[in-house]
Amino acid sequence: MDTLGERLRLARSAKGISQLAVARALDTSRTVVSKWENNEQEPRLQTLQRLAALYGVRLEDLVTSEANPSPVPHSDGLVAAEGPTERLMRLAEDLSTALKMREENERLRIEQVEAPRAEAEKIAREAERASREADRAAREGEKIAQENLRMLMMQLMGTPRDSGQPGGGEPVDVGDDTGEEPGSVDAARG
């Protein structure tokens, strides 16, 4: 056993788990695990560390050409012969570790992918709102400019602003205090 792929395959087989189970624990594909074991692709150091933890071996055993991967010693420093109960307990512990790694991967994915995406969407909504406000302000400015132009034109033409009189604002004779209509016969006599 002199290749990394062979050591990975041996450690996985000794653990009694499938390539698919490894792929799921590491959030990758079975094809990638197969490529590692067939020396077609090498896992990164972080992945090797996770594989060592999953297989219950030391990282050094995976990356060096020793004859057999060493089992990880118990917390008391002893390596005991493994019976069915111990194997079951170890497998449960390994499953728990794999689930924690999966949760950590999901947390990192959310942190590195979802959070920036949400922030980008928020910025896009704010930009859209600012654009609508700028459009509204531009329309208001245009109305004000048109009103100012109309008033200027009226001043240049000599028309009072609020005359509202027919004939372009020419003065209309409203008569005198006699109560007679302007232009009436009695008013003409007087």
Notes on the structure:
- The protein is rod-shaped and about 105 Å long.
- It has a domain at 1-74: lambda repressor-like DNA-binding domains (434 Repressor (Amino-terminal Domain), Orthogonal Bundle), CATH 1.10.260.
- Mean pLDDT is 77; it is low at 72-81.
- Helix 2 (19-26) packs across helix 3 and helix 4 (45-55) runs antiparallel to helix 6 (84-156).
- Helices cover 64% and strands 0% of the residues.
- With 190 residues, the protein is an all-alpha fold.
- It has helices at residues 4-15, 19-26, 30-37, 45-55, 59-63, 84-156, 185-189.
- The chain is built from seven helices and no strands.
Separation, N- and C-terminal Cα atoms: 135 Å
Fourth-tier CATH superfamily name of the domain at 1-74 = lambda repressor-like DNA-binding domains
CATH architecture label of the domain at 1-74: Orthogonal Bundle
Number of strands: 0
Strand content: under 5%
Condensed summary:
The protein is mainly alpha-helical and 190 residues long.
Keywords, separated by commas or semicolons:
single chain, 190 residues, 434 Repressor (Amino-terminal Domain), mainly alpha
